[in-house]
Amino acid sequence: MSLRDQSMLEFVRDSAGEASRSVQLDRRDFLKVLGGGLLVCLTHSTARTQESGRIFGGHELPKDVSAWLHIAADGQVNVFTGKVEVGQNIRTSLAQQVAEELRVPFASITMVMGDTDLTPWDMGTFGSRTTPTMGPQLRAVAAAARETLVQMAAQRWQVDAATLTAADGKVTDPKKARSFTYGELTRGQKLVKLISGEERLTPATEWKIAGTAVPKVNGRDFVTGAHKYPSDMVLPEMRFGAVLRPEGFNATLASLDTSAAEALNGVQVVRDGDFIGVVALDAYTAQHALSAIQAQWNVPAQPSNEGLYEYLKNSPETGDDGGPQHVTGSVAQAMASADLKLENQYTVAYIAHAPLEPRAAVATWADGRLTVWTGTQRPFGVRDELMQEFRLSAAQVRVIQPDMGSGYGGKHTGEAAIEAARLSKAVGKPVKVVWTRQEEFTWAYFRPAGLIEIKAGIKRDGTVVAWEHHNYNSGPADIGTPYAVANQLIQYHPANSPLRQGSYRGLAATANNFARESHMDELAHAAGMDPLEFRLKNIADLRLRAVVQAAQDKFGWGRMKSSPERGFGIACGTDKGGYVATCAEVQIDPASRKVRIRRIVEAWESGAIVNPDGLRNQVMGAIVQSIGGALFEQILFANGRILNPHFAQYRLPRFSDTPQIEVVLLDRKDLPSAGAGETGIIGLAPAVANAIFAATGTRLRSMPMTPVHNGQEKSSVQFQS
Amino acid sequence: MAEFILDVNGAQLHVNAPADESLLSVLRNRLNLTGTKYGCGEGQCGACTVLLDGRATRSCLVAVSSAVNTKIFTIEGLEQNGKLSAVQQAFLDEGAFQCGYCTPGMILSATSLLHRTHNPTEEQIVEAMNGNLCRCGTYPRIVAAVKRAARLMPAKGASR
What we know:
The complex is a heterodimer of chains A (721) and B (160). Chain A is α+β, with helices and mostly antiparallel strands. Chain A is built from 20 helices and 28 strands. In chain A, helix 19 crosses helix 20. With 160 residues, chain B is of the alpha+beta class. Chain B folds into 2 domains: 2-74, Beta-grasp domain (Ubiquitin-like (UB roll)), CATH 3.10.20.30; 86-152, DNA polymerase, domain 1. Chain B has helices at residues 23-30, 86-94, 103-116, 122-129, 139-152; strands at 2-8, 11-17, 49-52, 55-58, 71-73. A 5-stranded mixed β-sheet of chain B has the order 2-1-5-3-4, sandwiched between helices. In chain B, helix 2 (86-94) packs across helix 5 (139-152). At the A-B interface, helix 8 and helix 19 of A face helix 1, helix 2, helix 3, helix 4 and helix 5 of B.
């Protein structure tokens, strides 16, 4: 299995870990449920068929054009996809691609997304997969539809289809100066056509709508408050629900008294084992009822932040972790002959996604059928959870995902959906559940913490000859080095995490790249080379080289020299088809050791750009978000309790933390478009750590780079004479 | 429960609510004005920002009883006769959002700032907006939008 496939596996593994919480399946069972073909799919399939779904629980993507696209008699086009809009702007970028291939004005496209009744099955919106997989899928659908429309016109006119042209929502016969609008051809009927996979897609060099900075669809609704997020949904007769949370993880209920809550006007208490919820006529009373419940819990002793990384290293998930994922040459031999060796440990903390909209759902039952509006990145996954929970068939559950207040990998699961459905079933009315911030910080899941150990050896001329990388718990995404190193040993060690963990924007690429790029920087300094020159010496991949050079030029690397008050650092990397290089300038107060990021230049390349404005927004957002994990975000926990479940205690990046940011986009119209929502996040942390080192000589090997966690790692630099 | 009359977006609205229920909860859950968002309930994120007598206020920290006799403006009240306010238009023009969940609070904080300070410096913008979180990280565009709004606004008469 290649390293890229490993990171695909990680998405599945994340989902499995989450699913096991709700349906009590272990990871192996889940893989079995998905089907034995899983690994076959991941090892030798193209990007397009990776989500074609043939192996995922028997889900097959429909080949009928009509399942994906409908043209009404008035020419309006509805496009159906199970992907969801969470702020990454795919509602706009996918519509651009369809408009391009179908040859219709952009405004005639409406995207119908994330509705399990209306859209084809989809695995979920994660892993930067929308642009490389759903983009080509919908382009093929649109191209097939266009071909069909041309043929329909040819038939009506009794002419050769090759003499006709399709443009601007019309098929035209140039010889006779006549045309049909698409609506006149379809009259609102379904297009009967199968996607062949052989459709000729318009190359990016000829794009007129795709590739341009089309503004966000329905952008106006977001500045007027008109857009309805999941937590804004209201149904007639709707009640408000809330769920009693245990005092800690893995707690068991010792005693319960709900009489005071039940005495409140209009309140119903719903109990099912250790699940205790309340339903009230209004949200205020629901919360009051919850706090009126007297419950005592037994919370078992559990691990804490103290000694976490040792715990993760010593708590493998299974007895046999399967050995290294990737070996080339012999690291041992290469290390023996290296001129300089360096070995270090790096750590990353658990962090929270903290989407500004917490989990929310509105559920209603009618005629044995359950409908839930909820914020999730996996509407079909949530449908599966609801089917399991309530023993329903797929036809009995509908999940609808209104464009939500984001997720960042944190909303793969359907907790609020299940809770709202449970309460709604019990009281016979529609019920809304909106998690509090504290619930979101406590009962969601976290980006995995991890320990990374790297051992490397280089030659005097700066050639890296040996690279050994071990990741404990944080994940295998982007674990392989993008540098040309002859001798490698790369291994991910799954661990038994004391906290519930799952997906996160960029997955473990942030952790692995932080460790790798910090280590590369240290090697460069040890070798007495400029960190940028050192990297270029070891990069064979021309796309990676191109972003490094683009960042170098924009930043003016080398023109300024680091001083104790000002440091310059660089880092680069590639994951999920995106290439990134980040240069950081930090300002340091030598007396207080306070650090401030002054300026970030990030060069980005992900093939042909579908929407430069949306892309720039994503890359900039990823940079800003990464400031938190780099400098101060960290979940503190002890004995099954989260110790900082509030924004006042868990610091997120704010306006005042934001440096001057310059994003350089490289548009490779000759390459397929890759996803860009995630990988922009991986460059900042190591670039900043490297800049701090350049200024102060202090190497920070922990994320976040707060002093409390520094100085615990072992570090050895050894020169051979 | 008591009856309150609230002056919301220029209309007198009658609402029954407990006196200590937050204005945020009343707006969202009783008056169905869902443009005002819940983010934390603790005054830390600014998603629930509304204008009380022109001043940006965290509606999650205000009891409904103390919002009586103030002019309340929510995001739904900024558009006039189909025309966006200067701040709304500037956010749209700059594309200063991703998921958009923080946007109503951002727009109201910016509106309040520009009401007091017609041509704020970057430092003044950062200081005035720092209580509003955008997890998507669109801060640079929001700063640009506030600057653009300052240019769009008439020198006088920026009443909201």
